[in-house]
Design goal:
The chain is mainly alpha-helical and about 525 residues long. The protein has three domains: about 200 residues, no CATH class; about 180 residues, no CATH class; about 100 residues, no CATH class. It is built from 21 helices and no strands.
Length: about 525
């Protein structure tokens, strides 16, 4: 079931009606049933086996780890006469057992994810290597897997829960149905955000009273999300698809236009989807963690990644970056580097950690070399920014006024946007060679006059498409500007008189209905749903 289909709106209305009508202690059952129905709807009923396997295995592993910790505590309480050495033996044995259980749960679910998403990629590359060394072509079989909806999102969410329980951050959930709701909660399973158990689980099972404010604010946020998706992202998508399909046919200026357009499309599509998800959740009195904070206003690449797909970045930071940076391997390596260069040794964990994280982020996005290159590009840029951070500090010490300079701030925003867009060359093409061709033409084959010719109207967009897209993007930019300055638009609307408030809301509804892309030119779903 697509968020864009009429049946989805009917589904949400029915769920809301039943959710607030039944006794409050049963409300979370409605969310669980709705989540499983949503997942099964549209031919995904077979893939639910993978979801249930991930949910059950991580729930069971966490429960066993938690039970073992409780057993050890109780054993020590009942056997206070045990010596320190005896307690140590019991503790060490308990730690080893918990580690085995933890690793089994982690490996099983990582294997499921890797087999489904990366098997064909591995077979293809192994065959290519084999043909190089044996000087003979090898036929590569393509295995067909039923890819579960949102597998990357719910796997990471489940693994995060298992890691937290293993680290002793909180107790394990004993009720499997409640845990299954946390894993399968239907609004966020398509494209996130990746939830944390201690922030989300209690909200899903709490008893909620109907509040008009939740319904109103959620609906407004959903409308805004649909505007981003249907009026902006889907309208400009044909231009990107046309140019990236055969980049060799176009001038460098047209390619730059396509990359710039892709940046807008990706943001409008992904953040629009997150707005819809967040709005639906608010209707059920559930507050999801923010996943976007106006990333194109970022002043550095690090700042950008603290604003874009925040939940994935936080997951990688907590479960990959910090454990890796504090690992014995990195500690030993830093000690060796101190003899060569103390400053490099101090920066080494953060530099290598960022490269590793974004290598994994690239693979997470898809089993293709272009995603890996895109991830490594971001990781290397961040590593270099860490390396040159002392130089930036010296610059600001000599020119402290630049921090308050508006022009300098604008320069930083534009510079960061360009750096991000260079990465998009790898993201929007189909082959790495095409990405480098597009980069080459953008630099050495750029002729501004090509943009002034009528052929830009042959890129899948008509004159009115450009006008509507520009107006919608300016509206998005204006709202984002005020949000960046701390204005909460929905609460600002609440303070306006009823005529102005409803005029704006009806105007937005009319704008979406009148100018949204439908029919053959509309995209079937959201771009991040494929990840």
């Amino acid at each position: 079931m697509s968020f864009l289909s009429p049946s989805f709106f009917v589904f949400i209305l029915i769920c809301l009606f039943i959710y607030y009508l039944i006794p409050k202690r049963f409300q979370w059952y409605i969310l669980l049933i709705a989540s499983l129905l949503f997942y099964c709807w549209g031919g995904r009923y077979k893939a639910i086996v993978y979801l249930l396997c991930t949910a059950f295995s991580t729930w069971l592993a966490a429960l066993m780890i938690d039970a073992l910790s409780g057993w050890v505590s109780e054993y020590f309480r009942l056997n206070k006469e045990l010596s320190k050495s005896e307690r140590k033996v019991v503790s060490e044995k308990s730690k080893r057992t918990k580690k085995i259980i933890f690793l089994c749960g982690m490996v099983l679910n990582i294997l499921i994810l890797c087999i489904i998403k990366y098997t064909n990629f591995a077979i293809k590359n192994i065959a290519q290597l084999w043909s190089i060394f044996t000087v003979s072509e090898v036929s590569t079989p393509v295995l067909s897997f039923l890819v579960p909806l949102g597998i990357s999102f719910y796997t990471f969410q489940s693994l995060g829960y298992l890691i937290d329980v293993y680290w002793g951050k909180y107790r394990a959930e004993k009720n499997f149905a409640k845990y299954l709701l946390f894993v399968s909660y239907f609004p966020q399973i398509v494209q996130g955000p990746i939830g944390r158990y201690d922030q989300l689980a209690a909200q899903l099972t709490k008893q909620n009273q109907f509040q008009y404010e939740n319904l109103k604010h959620g609906a407004i946020l959903m409308l805004w999300g649909y505007m981003k998706k249907l009026v902006i992202a889907d309208r400009i998508a044909p231009l990107v698809a046309t140019v990236c399909k055969s980049p060799g046919e176009y001038d460098g200026s047209v390619i730059v236009l396509a990359i710039f357009t892709y940046a807008i499309q990706l943001y409008a599509d992904f953040s629009g989807g997150i707005d819809i998800v967040t709005g639906i959740s608010e209707m059920f009195a559930i507050r999801l963690s923010p996943n976007f904070m106006r990333p194109y206003f970022a002043t550095s690449l690090g700042d950008f990644w603290r604003r874009w797909h925040i939940s994935l970045g936080a997951w990688m930071r907590d479960y990959v970056f910090y454990p890796f940076a504090r690992s014995k391997f990195i500690t030993k390596t830093c000690k060796k580097l101190k003899g060569l260069h103390k400053k490099i040794a101090a920066l080494f964990p953060a530099m290598v950690g960022n490269i590793l994280v974004f290598f994994l982020v690239g693979i997470w996005h898809g089993a293709e070399w272009r995603y890996i290159f895109w991830g490594l590009y971001n990781g290397i840029i961040l590593a270099l920014s860490i390396l040159f951070k002392p130089l930036y500090s010296q610059f600001y010490e000599k020119f402290p006024q630049t921090k308050e300079c508006c022009l300098w701030h604008i320069f930083q925003v534009i510079r960061t946007f360009i750096i991000v867009c260079i990465g998009y060359y790898f993201d929007c093409c189909t082959e790495i060679s095409e990405a480098f061709l597009m980069l080459k033409k953008s630099i050495f084959g750029f002729h501004f006059s090509a943009l002034l010719q009528d052929n830009i109207l042959k890129l899948g967009m008509e004159k009115w498409d450009y006008i509507i897209a520009v107006v919608a993007v300016l509206l998005l930019l204006t709202v984002s500007f005020f949000q960046e300055r701390g204005v909460q638009i929905r609460f600002w609307l609440d303070k306006r008189n009823i005529v102005l408030r409803w005029s704006i809301l009806y105007g937005l509804i009319f704008f979406i209905i009148a100018f949204s892309i439908t029919g053959v030119n509309a995209m079937e779903g959201f771009m991040y749903a494929i990840f």
